[in-house]
Amino acid sequence: MNEMLRAEHLDQTFAALADPTRRAILARLAKGEASVGELTAPFAMSQPAISKHLKVLEAAGLVSRGRDRQRRPCRLEPEALTRATAWIEECRNLWERRFARLDGILDELQQQAEVAEEGRNGQE
Amino acid sequence: MNEMLRAEHLDQTFAALADPTRRAILARLAKGEASVGELTAPFAMSQPAISKHLKVLEAAGLVSRGRDRQRRPCRLEPEALTRATAWIEECRNLWERRFARLDGILDELQQQAEVAEEGRNGQE
DNA sequence: CAGTTATATAACTAGAAAGTTATATAACAA
DNA sequence: TTGTTATATAACTTTCTAGTTATATAACTG
Q: Minimal Cα–Cα distance from A65 to chain B, Å?
């Protein structure tokens, strides 16, 4: 439990990562918590726009938020990043295993060719 | 060279990965080349829709295509996957280094506290 | 050549996304 | 209470996305 939810979660996570503003926000948060205002400052963009981006990041589980007086400090949730890399790595492993198999087959063919060659040349 | 292009490339890659049909296509291609027709078969979706998805994957550098008679076999390009994980890992490393620093600070405070305690207790 | 198969392109629609400004809410300060 | 700061929400616009059907192109077959 549960394939469907897992897929949906990956949808949201990768979609969240597809926006450069959101990646910049994550990179900033990797250095430590920050308030919405602090996250807005570096961008030529309104505060509501950043609030929306944060909502997307939060929905994807990449960010969570606390409360400090009027501020809503945001922090990175690195486990969501882990789930994203896990999918990619699974995909790449499949690919690499395929080559391992191909190598095995090539080795076999190579051996057979050598045996046939020896047979034809007599000994040595 | 070149930050802007690199960012744009990540945009395309993560956006490509955000769609479950496209992830399924990549997972299929991880097991070996396939034609457009073979990729279309498993989905309740028209062939033009799959051609469009392939175009997105190709633009992101995740897939490349050859020619075999009338077929245009698609194959996975795992290096684009590598670039995606690289960004994520960089982000996570930043985060982990932050904790390493925090641990260092905590160790220091701990030591200071111990020294202070010893001072107060006289020897031992 | 005519017909078939594999894929791509065009034109369109419906819905989602990313931004805007204006306004509402929540927490605090005097 | 009144005012201020920090953030969220609403309403709207523009652009992008994912699908559709119909049609075009390209490569092969007889």
A: 16
CA to C1' distance (Å), from B38 to D27: 18
- DSSP bridge pairs for A74: A34, A65
Tokens representing residue B21 in the block: 């049909």
Q: Cα–Cα distance between A97 and B53 in angstroms, integer? A: 25
Residue A2 preceded by cis peptide, ω within 30: yes
Distance, CA of B103 to CA of A21 (rounded, Å):
30
In Å, what is the separation between the CA of A123 and the C1' of C19? Answer: 79
User: What does the DSSP assignment read for A83-122?
Assistant: HHHHHHHHHHHHHHHHHHHHHHHHHHHHHHHHHHHHHHH-
Instruction: Report CB contact under 8 Å: B76, A82.
Output: no
Which pLDDT band holds residue A20 (cuts at 50, 70, 90)?
A: very high
Which residue of B10, B81, B85 is in closest CB contact with A23?
B10
Q: Which residue has the higher pLDDT, B106 or A64?
A: A64
Q: What is the pLDDT of residue B23?
A: 98
Most confident range (mean pLDDT) of A94-103, B11-20, B110-119 is B11-20
Nearest chain A residue (CA) to B6:
A20
Residue A56, judged by CB atoms within 10 A of its CB (0-12, 13-18, 19+), counts as middle
